[in-house]
Amino acid sequence: MKILTILRKLGLVLSLAIVVSTVSAGETSTLKIPKAKQNFSAEQACVEPTDVMRRQHGLLLKHYRSDTMRHGVRTLEHSLVACINCHVTADEAGNYPTVHQGSEHFCRSCHTYAAVNIDCFQCHTSQPQESFSADMGPVQSD
Question: How far apart are CA 55 and CA 50, in angstroms?
């Protein structure tokens, strides 16, 4: 048990030393996040404050995925489709980046920076849907 505690502390110290040496060497990378196309509403830019979305978007998506899959609740507020339609922007030629190529894709830009895998797009599209309906409501259950 003591060995695990020592190893954890050693790992923390080593991680901190790497960060400090990188910062002191001036090698910090800046995260370039593509801007959203529009605000969610007149009162707020996104469905949640920026700090909440940066830290908890994965939990929000999982929670609302459960509501959608188990209860048929479909809303725009935490919809992955709405996120993609707003945040994934076309380049100068009008082409949309894919999450699998390049770092221009909104999701990939942060996930690459944080070294986190993206598995949403194994099933979902990573590009905006032109025929997206803004008046999605709850799915009627039989």
Answer: 9
Q: Which DSSP letter does residue 15 get?
A: H
What whole-number distance in Å separates Cα of residue 45 and Cα of residue 24?
35
Domain that holds residue 55: 31-142
pTM for the predicted model, two decimal places: 0.59
Give the separation between CA 38 and CA 134, rounded to whole angstroms: 13
Q: How do residues 11-31 score in pLDDT, each as one tens digit? A: 655 555 555 554 445 555 567
80 has a pLDDT exceeding 70? yes
- Tell me the Ramachandran region of residue 115: left when phi exceeds 0, alpha when psi lies from -120 to 50, beta otherwise: left
- Residues 37, 19, single domain; the answer is no
